[in-house]
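dude i think i finally got it to work??
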Amino acid sequence: MILWIADFTPLTLSIIILLLFPLGVYVSKESEKIFLKRDSPRIVFDEVVGAFISVFLLPKKIEYIILAFFIFRFFDIVKPYPIRKIDEKVKGGFGVMLDDVIAAVYTNLTLQAMRFFYEVR
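look at this
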């Protein structure tokens, strides 16, 4: 899926992210009710939005896409500040979505920095 995402224009990707986030809040909230578990691993809508954000404004190269996947998973699992705090304090669908959005922003910033330091010569 992330290969497909990389083909979107920045405007299209921005619109998609802005539309998917509130939808994800709703879907995640309802999914928690169905699964009877807070932030169930069966809820993946947050990862989908995270994938979009992770590759936002990056070159359409397989290296970035692969790195985005692994770096996002790292931030999503390790939960550096403030991700862990948000995961613990913000409940419901908004919390489910927000911690992954921040992990994706960290991913994107990491990749943008790598791009700046390793591609600019």
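The chain has a mean pLDDT of 89.
im so relieved honestly
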